[in-house]
Write a structure and sequence with these properties.
alpha+beta; Enolase-like, domain 1; 5 strands; globular
Length: 87
């Protein structure tokens, strides 16, 4: 018997002094909203299709990335949006 994979995809990468953590699957996104400051290297790039959140790339925000990953695994969209709103 196969069981569905419910844990959201996640990866991270370090580019010199910039870390990027990505959680979710952004295939088919139609917009990216930036929250925070790319210049300060503390931002979230939120990938959406219409109002539906698909994935988040966190730049320099490791704690927020972990909170979003847990909320995605729990299926708690309101917790994800709360983390995004707090940046």
């Amino acid at each position: 018997m196969q069981t569905p994979h419910t844990v959201p995809p996640f990866f991270w990468s370090a580019h010199y002094d910039v870390t990027i953590a990505f959680v979710g699957h952004a295939a088919g996104y139609d917009r990216v909203d930036i929250h925070g400051s790319l210049e300060k290297r503390r931002a979230l790039a939120v990938y959406r299709t219409g109002p539906r959140l698909l994935a988040v790339a966190a730049i320099g925000l490791d704690r927020e990335s972990l909170l979003i990953e847990k909320a995605m695994a729990d299926g708690d969209r309101s917790a994800i949006e709360a983390v995004i709103a707090g940046v």
